[in-house]
User: What shape does this take?
Amino acid sequence: MSDERLSGEEVLNRIRDRRGDHTWPIHHLMAELDPGFLDVFDEAYVRTMGIDPLPVVGALEAKYRELICACACAMMPVPVEVTAHHLERAFDLGLTEREAMEGFSSLIIPAGGIAVSNGARALMYLRAQRLSDEGRE
Assistant: This one.
């Protein structure tokens, strides 16, 4: 976060640059109604997730930070695409499908079978997307 106030569009552009052209409708609403909060929110997000700056040596690897987010999403009433987004980012950082399933399975005690099922649905969603993308090539 800089000392100067950024416009909502400037913050959205920074989010796209940092996260690979990925924004959600909530980002656009915040950009319109409260760009200062979106600026602070984005700074917290990228630091927490290890996007920018990179986490210090010995810190929790970014792939596991993304898995934790995917697991948290699996416990909430969010669209499968939200859980899949964090899962895909974790895969891009080197997470394996087995690690993902073990992460979702660990939700059985604190969050129950629905959370495990939601996580597995996100994993299946990404597999189906991959097959669909391969069919287009």
